[in-house]
Every structure is written in C-alpha cells, then in structure tokens.
Amino acid sequence: MVTAVGQIGCIPYQLARFHGNSTKCNEKINSAILLFNSGLKKMVQNFNGGQLPGAKFVFLDFYQSSSDLSSNGTSYGNYLFFRHALYSW
To answer: Which of helix, strand or coil describes residue 54?
Structure first.
C-alpha cells in the first residue's frame, strides 16, 4: 500500500500561524503536496501496469480524507477540542 501525503498545510500548527486566506490553511504547502501525490499516483499506476511484473500496489489517497477532516472537523468530535488544538500553539 502506498499512501499519499495529507494536507500538511491544514495541520493545527499551520492553522495557528497562517492567516492568508479564508480557510486559514497554507495553500502553498498543499499545492506542492498535490503535485507530489499526482506523481506518486502515476508511479503506482506504472508499477501496476507491468513495470514490476507480479507486484500489486494500492494507492491510498489520504489527501482527500484529510480534506474532509479539515473542512468538517467538528462533525468528527467536540468543537472545543478542535479549538484548543488549533489555538494552543
């Protein structure tokens, strides 16, 4: 299993220090991660397409999962917990 990189631009540290847009995420970091993940996915497709005969790789797109968590974080738990995590830095 090959796992994509999640939204590091939306981790609590970045949310606490970056206020450049309405989401408060560091979109420069997230854009670089999208570029990396795109190349990683192509590499996995190449491996599964015969570049490594007999091998089977699965690509897990953690970026999309972490996107939902950062967009809808409070639906996964207590708002006060998330607020403390974001502003305790």
So the answer is: coil
Residues 17-55 as b/e (b if ≥16 CB within 10 A, e otherwise) read ebeeeeebbbbebbeebeeebeebeeebeebeeeeeeee
Cα separation values, 45 from 6, 42, 53, 57, 62, Å: 19, 5, 12, 8, 17
Q: Residue 66: exposed, middle, or buried by beta-carbon count in 10 A (0-12, 13-18, 19+)?
A: buried
Question: How confident is the chain (89 residues) per 10-residue block, as mean pLDDT?
Answer: 90 75 78 96 92 89 75 62 52
